[in-house]
Amino acid sequence: MLTLTVLIARAFSSLNGNMVKQGPRPLVICGPSGSGKSTLLKKLFKEFPDTFGFSVSHTTRKPRPGEENGVHYHFVSVEEMQSAIEKGEFIETAVFSGNMYGTSKKAVENVQHQGKVCVLDIEIEGVKQIRNSERLNPLLVFVNPPSIEELERRLRGRQTETEESLQKRLNTARKEIVYGTEPGNFDVVVQNNNLKQAYEDLRNFIVRELETQQGQGINVSLNRVFDE
């Protein structure tokens, strides 16, 4: 059996294949579990329903209450994940809290075929694999939580973690924050101390970038839906 390191290397090397067509740059959003990524993305999709499409990742972890297969994640076995990586079906993979995660080529292409900006919510290890990919050329956003203490409060509030798994997540979060806030690793760092301000910062960055792409002749919709 191939080691996980070799499997991830194969996924990374598959980026050299003929995969991503010319179109809007994919949007990669990253941040510690509990940083508010999902909430920010929900607001973004609500305001710009015709602009963005979510890339549904694969994972070997078990579904949480309320999660649907094919909607929140493609939930697969370790064997299925390893087989898909060996076949070169992923553009990035990572291991987080003992579970495998990955973004498949097909997931990205499904969004691109709709003429939308593909949104990828991935882990730091995945970001490291694709950040310099000329073929993907992604926009990289890091969502930074107010503090580790606030992050811990949010994670405990979910009541989905054992004490051991919680501490693992917090230890991982500390490393993610160090990497995420290092100048040059991301195109923008969104500080999520206040949800309203954080969303405004995220939206302004994305709109500015997409308007630049429109000026370069790339077709992308920026139609907005306003709250009543």
The first-level CATH class is given as Alpha Beta
CATH topology: Rossmann fold
Structural class: alpha/beta
Radius of gyration: 17 Å
Our measurement of the CA-to-CA distance between the termini, rounded to an integer number of angstroms, reads 56 Å
CATH superfamily: P-loop containing nucleotide triphosphate hydrolases
Enumerate the spans where pLDDT stays under 50 for 5 or more consecutive residues: 1-20
Helix content: 40-55%
Strand content: 15-25%
CATH architecture heading = 3-Layer(aba) Sandwich
The chain-level mean pLDDT equals 88
- Strands of the largest sheet, in order across it? 2-7-1-8-9
- Counted beta strands: 9
In this structure, how is the largest beta sheet organized?
Answer: 5 strands, parallel
**Total domain modules:** 1
- Number of helical segments? 8
Estimate the global geometry from the Cα principal axes.
globular
